[in-house]
C-alpha cells in the first residue's frame, strides 16, 4: 500500500490530482492538507509516507520556507514540488533545496504519474524544457537555507516583513501580535541567522527572494 500526501490549498486541484493518482497507482492511500501546519502534523503522524507533493504557496508556507523546513525535519522523505510557477530561478532553487522533482501544474496526468514514478525510484524529474536550464546554488545560498530552516513559521513571517521594510508596529498589526512579541521574534531571528541588525537580516532574506507571507 502506497501512501502519498498532497499539500495544496486549492481543493479542486487536490481533488483532480487525487483522482489522477488513484487511476495511475493501485492500492493507494492519499492524505491531504491545505496549510503548512496540517502538513507538518501529517508528516509527524504518518512516518511511512512514500512521497510528499508540495505546493510552494499555501497558508503558512511562504515560498521556499516550507520545502527547506520539511527537508530539514524529514531528510529521507521524497518531495516533488507541484507549482503553477515555471520560472527557472524558482525551479533551480527548489531542486537545490532538496526536492527530487518539479512538476508544473499544467502537466498532464500521464506526465505527473511518470514524474512521481521517477521520484519514487530515487531519481530526479524535471520537464524536458527545463532540464538544460536549471542551475545550482552558490555556497552562500546553501548556508542561508540551513540558517532559515531553524526559524519557526512565525519567525519566518517576521523576517519576510522585515524584508518588505515594515516597522515593528506594522508587523505587529499584520500578525495581530504585540510589538514586544515582534521584538522578541526579531531577537531570535538575529541569533539564529548570526546577524546583528535589520540590514543584515534583510540581506539574508533577499538571497531567498522572499515574498509577502501567506497568512495561516
Which structural class should the secondary elements be placed in? Answer: alpha/beta
CATH T-level topology of the largest domain: Rossmann fold
In what range is the share of β-strand residues? 5-15%
Order of helices and strands: EHEHEEEHEHEHHHHHH
CATH architecture of the largest domain: 3-Layer(aba) Sandwich
CATH class of the largest domain: Alpha Beta
Question: How many strands, what sense, and barrel or not for the largest sheet?
Answer: 5 strands, parallel
How many domains, in number, for the residues? 2
The CATH superfamily of the largest domain bears the name: Response regulator
Percent of residues in helices: 40-55%
Gyration radius (Cα, Å) is: 18 Å
For the secondary structure, the number of strands is 7
Describe the strand arrangement of the main beta sheet, using strand numbers: 2-1-3-6-7
CA distance, first residue to last residue:
32 Å
Low-confidence blocks of residues: none
Principal-axes shape call = globular
What do the pLDDT scores average to? 88
**So how many helices?**
10
Protein model, in words:
The two termini are 32 Å apart. With 216 residues, the chain is an alpha/beta fold. The longest helix is centred in the last third of the chain and has 15 residues, at 179-193. Strands 2-1-3-6-7 form a five-stranded parallel sheet, sandwiched between helices. Strands 4-5 form a two-stranded antiparallel sheet. β4 and β5 (61-62) form a beta hairpin. The chain folds into two domains: 2-135, Response regulator (Rossmann fold, 3-Layer(aba) Sandwich), CATH 3.40.50; 139-208, Orthogonal Bundle (Arc Repressor Mutant, subunit A). It has ten helices and seven strands.
Amino acid at each position: 500500500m502506497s501512501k502519498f500526501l498532497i499539500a495544496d490549498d486549492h481543493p479542486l486541484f487536490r481533488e483532480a490530482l487525487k483522482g489522477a493518482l488513484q487511476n495511475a497507482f493501485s492500492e493507494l492511500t492519499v492524505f491531504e492538507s491545505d496549510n503548512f501546519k496540517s502538513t507538518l502534523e501529517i508528516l509527524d503522524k504518518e512516518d511511512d509516507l512514500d512521497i510528499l507533493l508540495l505546493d510552494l504557496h499555501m497558508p503558512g508556507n511562504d515560498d521556499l520556507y516550507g520545502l527547506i523546513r520539511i527537508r530539514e525535519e524529514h531528510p529521507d522523505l521524497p518531495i516533488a514540488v507541484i507549482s503553477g510557477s515555471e520560472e527557472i530561478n524558482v525551479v533551480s532553487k527548489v531542486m537545490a533545496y532538496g526536492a527530487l522533482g518539479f512538476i508544473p501544474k499544467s502537466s498532464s496526468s500521464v506526465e505527473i504519474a511518470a514524474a512521481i514514478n521517477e521520484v519514487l525510484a530515487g531519481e530526479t524529474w524535471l520537464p524536458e524544457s527545463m532540464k538544460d536550464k536549471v542551475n545550482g546554488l552558490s555556497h552562500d545560498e546553501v548556508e542561508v537555507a540551513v540558517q532559515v530552516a531553524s526559524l519557526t513559521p512565525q519567525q519566518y513571517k517576521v523576517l519576510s516583513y522585515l524584508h518588505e521594510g515594515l516597522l515593528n508596529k506594522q508587523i505587529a498589526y499584520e500578525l495581530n501580535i504585540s510589538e514586544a512579541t515582534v521584538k522578541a521574534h526579531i531577537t531570535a531571528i538575529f541569533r539564529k541567522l548570526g546577524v546583528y541588525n535589520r540590514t543584515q537580516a534583510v540581506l539574508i532574506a533577499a538571497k531567498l527572494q522572499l515574498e509577502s507571507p501567506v497568512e495561516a
